[in-house]
Design a protein that fits this description.
11 helices, alpha/beta, Rossmann fold, about 300 residues, 7-stranded mixed sheet, disordered N terminus
């Protein structure tokens, strides 16, 4: 009786998440339309506060790029991916119209499947894959990953860049990743954190006005431990920890040289000290994982 009851709860949770994903699809179709029209921060699905937050986040991302952390993240992911790609079938989860490594992965993998909710974004990615001569071994599909029909153990590697934080109950999507991943397969993720006090406070103030709050769940400490229980953590690294101390200097031309010096020290500090669960990682704004699936569920028994 206990198992049946919990099974019903799990089914209800998945059904609720599928409803949220349909709303998310409409939102991102609107974002795609706005981007094409050159009005990135005037999306019809977003209110003024959400558009303002998007503009602020875009500014922070520009400052982050100046610190070199974006390039550092991509280089780290290339290092993790390179030995795994030959002969591999890769699932690029939540790829939209292509993340910074989508085409790079598709060129090197045996097979590549990109998945995203947005039909328009997927159509654009398929055009890019065709232009590169990568079809048909590389293709993108518009679908909800929680409603996929892939057989068990279909993929050797799952690349999920800025995706997993869109699921309120992350255990649901982690179990689905485990189902479609072969034993010994690899998962590489990158997502925002909500563990740093200032960031957590700012998000709490913003959240009541946030149009897309139903699918925005930056990782908490509980989320991090859920991931660590579900897979073998081979590597972890935080981003936007001490390195964000350079942002005020980089924002103004007269102090940018100082900002670059601060940035070099701070990014080196983050690289050394955020490779495990602990305070230096919790003070970061983002985290990346290299996870190995051992072929059995390590997550808490849902029954």
């Amino acid at each position: 009786m206990k198992k049946a009851g919990n099974s019903a709860v799990n089914d209800d949770t998945r059904a609720h998440m599928l409803t949220i994903n349909r709303q998310q699809k409409d939102f991102y179709e609107s974002r795609f339309d706005a981007s094409r029209a050159g009005t990135r921060h005037q999306e019809r699905a977003a209110n003024t506060t959400t558009n303002w937050w998007s503009a602020l986040r875009h500014t922070v991302m520009q400052l982050r790029a100046q610190t070199g952390t974006d390039a550092q993240l991509e280089e780290l992911h290339r290092t993790w991916l390179t030995p795994e790609l030959p002969g591999a079938h890769v699932l690029d989860l939540g790829c939209f119209s292509g993340n910074p490594l989508s085409l790079w992965i598709a060129e090197r993998a045996e097979r590549y499947t990109g998945v995203d909710l947005s039909e328009q974004a997927i159509a654009e990615l398929n055009d890019k894959l065709t232009e590169r001569g990568l079809a048909p071994h590389a293709q993108a599909v518009a679908q909800d990953f929680l409603a996929n029909d892939y057989p068990d153990h279909s993929f050797d590697l799952v690349y999920a860049r800025s995706v997993l934080h869109h699921f309120q109950d992350i255990s649901v999507v982690l179990r689905e990743i485990q189902r479609v991943l072969r034993p010994g397969g690899l998962v590489i993720t990158f997502d925002p954190l909500a563990t740093e006090p200032f960031n957590r406070y700012a998000r709490a103030v913003y959240r009541p006005f946030q149009t897309d709050r139903s699918w925005e769940w930056p990782f908490t400490r509980k989320t991090l431990y859920t991931i660590a229980k579900s897979f073998t953590v081979e590597a972890i690294s935080g981003y936007g920890g001490m390195s964000k101390s350079a942002y005020p200097f980089l924002a103004f031309p007269p102090t940018q040289r100082v900002g670059q010096r601060v940035s070099r020290w701070a990014t080196a500090y983050d690289a050394r000290h955020t490779n495990h669960l602990g305070l230096p990682l919790y003070l970061c704004w983002g985290v990346t994982f290299r996870l190995r699936y051992q072929g059995f569920s390590r997550s808490p028994d849902p029954s």
